[in-house]
Amino acid sequence: MCVHSTKDATHIATLEGRTLVEYTVAKAADETSQIDGNIYVGRIQNVLPGMELAFVDIGIPKNAVLYRADISLNDDDVETTGRNNDRRIEQMIRSGQTIICQVTKNAIGAKGARLTQEVSLPGRFAVLVPNSNTIGISKRLPDGERRRLRRIIDEVKPERHGIIIRTAAEGVSEADLARDVTSLCAKWDAIEAEVAKASHPRLIYRDLDLAVRVLREELNEDYRGVLIDDPELFDKVREYVTAVNPELADRIEFYDRKTEDLPLFERHFVHEQLHRALDRKVFLPSGGSLIIERTEALTVIDVNTGKNVGTTNLEETVFRNNLEAAEEVARQLRLRDIGGIIVIDFIDMEPKANREAVAGALRNALSRDKTRTQVFDISELGLIEMTRKRVNEGLLESVSSLCAVCDGRGFVIDAKL
Known about the structure:
The chain is an alpha+beta fold. The protein has helices at 89-92, 143-156, 174-197, 210-218, 231-244, 264-267, 270-277, 314-336, 352-366, 395-398; strands at residues 2-5, 9-16, 19-27, 39-48, 53-57, 64-67, 98-105, 114-116, 121-122, 126-129, 135-137, 162-165, 202-205, 226-228, 252-254, 281-283, 289-294, 298-304, 340-345, 373-375, 383-388. Helix 8 runs parallel beside helix 9.
């Protein structure tokens, strides 16, 4: 992982070998756009029963959105009895009511930030779910490890709160897990004290800087190193990793711009790969190409053979090209952070076995992506429909602004005609 800091933003590039696989732009702590994970005291502005949502003032210019499914309440708060899923939203909350809420998704485009009342505090090995009976263990852990951790949970679970054990807890001792949970409980007590003093909508708790947060979520034994070219950020990250994961602290290295011949991103060929990641055309190793077009509704990816003419027959050439494209599509979706509905137009293949092999190759390549995806089988038209959870605004949006002349459409209307 290479972390490059500038006055306006921190750029985080993740490389596998020399290949850029993820790129994150963390803009300077922003009160309105980079608020994912923050906890607020909010005031319900208006409830829309027909949309089953409410708009909430959390002290920023644009109201945030609270959906009915994200509301949690005590029976004392509601007007009717019955299960939560029988209640209408106007019976669960009302205009003018003050609530504690957490941002689960930053504002994207015209949509406001998304909120939940199910507040959670992530630590290194566990997530604290205050005032809840929730108990969970990451599904990514092997069965034997899950059994071990289930025994430990009874010892470390706080009385009033629920906990979820994260994948990073694999092999961790009971003492380390208990220390993590204790620090999260102390953090929640401080938050509750702040909430008691709040008289108007405002920020109560800010999550860690995005650069540190990425390391909290990502850093594990698989990483050979983390290079940081900013001394202040290096100290902050080193201190955090030493506190929560001391055995990985020596992998955090300072890249001194004064003594090195090349800037960090040039040394690791990040710049040139980033420019290619912003282009609509992607070349495949054997001569084929992908064309990636983004629209309001979905992203369309077209697969072409281009200069790939193969050696044996047409069906074999097309099959090999599609397999190569499936691998590259998965990498591009992760690198460009493309979310929502995605339609991939593979080149038509006659044998059913070939179509299934390409769909399987795509699913296999996407399994390395930590963002949730769902892939459907190839249709009669040779299209694959899939979805990828939209978490952030996407790489292109994070490093660009809309063209003022054509309004992002790519052409200018001829006034004379």
